[in-house]
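Minutes, structural biology subgroup

Action item carried over from last meeting: produce the structure token record for Claudin (Megalops atlanticus). EB confirmed the sequence was re-checked against the source entry. Recorded below for completeness.
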Amino acid sequence: MNAIVEAVAFLLGFLSWVMVGVALPNRYWKVSTVDGNVITTSTIYENLWMSCATDSTGVHNCRDFPSLLALSGYIQASRALMIAAIVMGTFGILATLVGMQCSKAGGENYVLKGRIAGMGGVFFLLQGLCTMISVSWYAFNITQEFFDPFYPGTKYEIGEGLYIGWCSATLAICGGSCLVCACKMGTPEKVPYPYQPTRGTVYSGGPPSQSAPSNYGRNAYV
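Output recorded by EB:
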């Protein structure tokens, strides 16, 4: 496996893991819309854990969701997927660190290290898929409620937390794909045949050289 590809893939995976940690506690997963409202006295924004409101003076108040079972199913699933993404990203970082060629962990068996690095790529792919499903499912419900003319509750728009999640998922999928595609399972190298010069006289432009001595003795001639 190319060491440069490993370094780039590890950097992408690490950045995606950090961005998942930033997106998960971000408060602005969805923000109340001002579409159709002439006067806006307060703004409501929510994430997977709490709901907050701020008024025109800048005073804001947040409250945690009181019950887990009372939440919508997609919020519970998004929570589980985001936590799973952090766990998968942690395994991916550890496996990639062990499997990198520049790392002394794992010994000098580069075939085994390449396989470990490939497993790190699989973990990064799983992290990206969990994050992508979580934020996309959450955004789908926001847009579904926004364009529903009969929805009686507050309508929301997509917040910055979802955009951070999408960027994180894209980086994780790119980093994991680089590790998986560049992983080589240790193919044996072909040893070239040794060069054997043929007997005879080689003319190099100078005076003719004497022929090589024969292996036959004098008694061989009849």
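Discussion: The CA atoms of residues 74 and 137 lie 7 Å apart.
Next step: EB to file the record with the rest of the batch.
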